[in-house]
Design goal:
mainly alpha; 3 helices; elongated
């Protein structure tokens, strides 16, 4: 996994990406703990495995950090775009909000 794909998809993957970052952090922490737990083990094979695991953990930590930065940037950008749109079209947004409120009121009133 060389690249972390942060592009939007049709299912609204922002929450999924955040969960993925959290899950990666848990896995990396577990692997770190495993490396520390096997520190007393001796032998060429275990040393190779520990070195490879440590290198992989370091690389994944870097990728996860990059993904977190990208997620924060995208969230800020989306927030700015939404804020700009609302500021540029206040009456349209007020009308839409009033219409949605009216529709919800009608639907609740029918019960």
């Amino acid at each position: 996994m060389n690249n972390v794909n942060l592009s939007d998809n049709e299912n609204g993957a922002a929450v999924t990406r955040q969960q993925l970052v959290a899950d990666f952090n848990v896995v990396l922490s577990d692997v770190d703990n495993l490396i520390r737990a096997t520190a007393s083990q001796r032998g060429a094979d275990i040393a190779k495995v520990r070195t490879k695991a440590a290198d992989t953990v370091a690389a994944m930590k870097s990728r996860v950090a990059d993904a977190e930065v990208a997620l924060r940037g995208k969230a800020r950008q989306a927030s700015r775009i939404a804020d700009d749109y609302v500021r540029e079209n206040p009456w349209r947004n007020l009308g839409v909000a009033a219409g949605v409120g009216l529709l919800i009121g009608i639907l609740i009133g029918r019960r």
